């Protein structure tokens, strides 16, 4: 994150107002024993200096217990099965550490400075942001100014090398998913992913292409499509590739939710999974086990990612140095019943 400017202190404001630090403290605490004119002057200077009280620190409480602190987990889109897994991981780690977790959805940040100040004023020790579309310079500077540590989980885009992030081995996952389909004899394999510019989507796509190229299998035009990591996108793009003159016999979807949309597109065309079409997802959320048939997918250790993000955020809040600004946890292919030998699709 960008270097933070020196934050104004009570002494700074007191010197500007020509009053004591105690008087400024009384104004901040709403005490009544301050003259109206003095109160007005101090409040004006607090705003002018953009003063923000330091964020609360963990410390010994009653009987030596660790005082509760809170970390905010913020999403920039509606919650999904993927989000639930992340939240579960953060909450479980928070329970182990005696840390409170607040979950919020904020789709836009119109006033970064106010947003950052409000987080600190609410007592947040750190911010964990999930699948952020982007974190612009104004937002990063605002967090830095109030000295609020940030950890991003599975970022769609990372503009700054110094932003701490937790992800998974997306390339290896894409490679494993495609190799699995190739091992079943499929050669007409399509990829339906998320946003084209998203870092995680690009890595999964590169894994898919690497596997195809290693087998000398060409990727026909129209076999790679991008949208959002949403069910409706899976339906729409699934329909598009299945309506091609030479449709695929297998589809690798960039997430489980997209895979479910592809399944529905196949069902609407009278296609059976896996007899007529094999499908692989990505994430291994609960819905992967609830589909009919159960979904073959690449497991992202989402709960573990949430736990690592929380622990990393607390280390940053305590002023510790971390070994790496980006950590990737291993993915794993989970084979279930949505994939089958290509002979099923070609001779059904």
TrEMBL record:
All copies of domain HTH lacI-type, residue ranges: 8-51
Keyword annotations: DNA-binding, Transcription, Transcription regulation
Domain of life: Bacteria
GO molecular function, one term: DNA binding
Keyword ATP-binding annotated: no
InterPro entries: HTH_LacI, LacI/GalR-like_sensor, Lambda_DNA-bd_dom_sf, Peripla_BP_I
Identification of the protein by name: LacI family DNA-binding transcriptional regulator
Organism: Nonomuraea helvata
């Amino acid at each position: 994150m960008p270097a933070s400017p020196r934050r104004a202190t009570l002494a700074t404001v007191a010197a500007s107002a020509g009053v004591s630090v105690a008087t400024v403290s009384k104004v901040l605490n709403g005490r009544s024993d301050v003259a109206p004119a003095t109160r007005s002057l101090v409040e004006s200077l607090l705003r002018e200096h953009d003063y923000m009280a330091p964020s609360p620190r963990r410390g010994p409480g009653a009987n030596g217990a660790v005082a509760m602190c809170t970390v905010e987990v913020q999403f920039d889109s509606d919650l999904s099965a993927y989000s639930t897994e992340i939240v579960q991981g953060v909450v479980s780690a928070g329970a182990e550490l005696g840390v409170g977790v607040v979950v919020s959805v904020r789709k836009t940040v119109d006033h970064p400075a106010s947003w950052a100040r409000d987080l600190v004023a609410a007592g947040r020790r750190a911010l964990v942001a999930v699948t952020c579309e982007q974190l612009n310079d104004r937002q990063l500077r605002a967090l830095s100014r109030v000295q609020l540590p940030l950890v991003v989980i599975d970022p769609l885009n990372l503009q700054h090398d110094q932003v701490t992030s937790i992800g998974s081995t997306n390339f290896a996952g894409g490679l494993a998913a495609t190799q699995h389909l190739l091992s079943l004899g499929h050669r007409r394999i399509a990829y339906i992913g998320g946003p084209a510019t998203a870092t995680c989507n690009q890595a999964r796509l590169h894994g898919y292409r690497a596997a195809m190229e290693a087998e000398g299998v060409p990727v026909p035009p129209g076999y790679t499509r991008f949208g959002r990591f949403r069910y409706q996108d899976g339906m729409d793009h699934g329909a598009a590739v299945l309506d091609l003159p030479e449709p695929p016999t297998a589809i690798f979807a960039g997430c489980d939710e997209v895979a479910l949309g592809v399944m529905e597109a196949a069902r609407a065309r009278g296609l059976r999974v896996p007899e007529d079409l094999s499908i692989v997802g990505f994430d291994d959320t609960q819905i992967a086990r609830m589909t009919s048939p159960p979904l073959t997918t690449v497991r992202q250790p989402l709960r573990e990612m949430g736990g690592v993000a929380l622990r990393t955020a607390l280390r940053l809040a305590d002023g510790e140095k971390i070994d790496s600004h980006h950590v990737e946890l291993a993915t794993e292919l989970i084979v279930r019943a949505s994939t089958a030998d290509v002979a099923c699709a070609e001779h059904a």
